[in-house]
Amino acid sequence: MIDFLARGLSAVRRRAGLILSALAATSGLLGMAPARAQEGDVYRFSPVNQYGIAVTAAYWNPIMAYVSEKSGVKLQLKIGRTSADTTAYVLAQEVEFIFSNHLFSPEREGLGWKVFGRRLTPPVHSQILVPIESPITELGQLAGKEVAFPGPEALVAYKFAAAQLMTRKIDFKTVFGGNMDGAFGQLFSGKAAAVGANSQLAEGYTRREGRKFRVLWQSQPLHDLALMSASKVPDKVQKAVAAAFLGMHADPKGRAVLTQASAQVGLGEEAYFIASDGSEYAGYRDFYRNAPASLR
To answer: Are 66 and 253 in contact (CB under 8 A)?
Structure first.
């Protein structure tokens, strides 16, 4: 149930997609047909690449299988090589459902996406981190140094963090890792002195990999990413998919899927999906009103 092959991708990306599709097939996650969906009715779901591609698939594929079966709507996971690639699919209207916080700028809110849910987790923060053993103890020491970020579309991990450094007039060099795990890899390989991060993903990385961080700065609390549907999705389909996501934790089978998936990324068992009308994302909208022009 995963499609990494998109028109216009390079040959390298095509080969990566074939490999990952094969991996998904061997895990039994491809080719599962929802009982009530008509043949050919497929809706694409694109979550932001918060982790490497394999870990992203390990989290989302079981959830996609459950929601497809429960709702009777075939959902297909569609992600690019990087978070920027995945967001490009969204902006090109190549997908119908997303899990993202990349659409809260004034321009993108005009595209017609509707928030119907969010993941219930403790508040997240934008953070600027260094390894716990680093001699760097304050932001000013990052002047002239490389700082790693997931990618240019990462609102919490890149834009919030970079804005803080720019506001303090700290001259830093930007390095993009493609996703959060890639940025952490840049940090711990010594290619970057610090990393802009989403606190939830940093905590999950510590649980998965055992690496510890020192926090140099963090933002005000923010909500986790939003579940959203495109305006072109039929109302009946949108409601069926929303009901399946929002009811997962109350269904023993759905709860088991969430527990298994959350363990793959270092989330707690309490991480499940709840209803949202989008009003909780005022902090993201406020950012765009005050951020440096280059980050809007």
So the answer is: yes
Task: Round to whole Å and give the CA distance between 224 and 226.
Answer: 7
Q: Which domains does the chain have, with CATH numbers?
A: 11-121+224-288 (3.40.190.10), 126-222 (3.40.190.10)
Residue-wise pLDDT for 42-79, tens only, equals 999 999 999 999 999 999 999 999 999 999 999 999 99
Cα distance between residue 8 and residue 6, in whole Å: 6
CA angle 185, 188, 192 (to 5 degrees): 85
Give alpha helix (H) positions in the chain.
11-26, 53-71, 83-91, 106-109, 161-167, 180-188, 199-209, 235-246, 252-265, 282-290
Angle (deg, nearest 10), helices 53-71 and 235-246: 110
Q: What is the distance between the alpha carbons of residues 83 and 266, in angstroms, rounded to a whole number?
A: 19
Closest CA to 232 of 92, 103, 63: 92
User: Tokens 């940025």 label which residue?
Assistant: 183
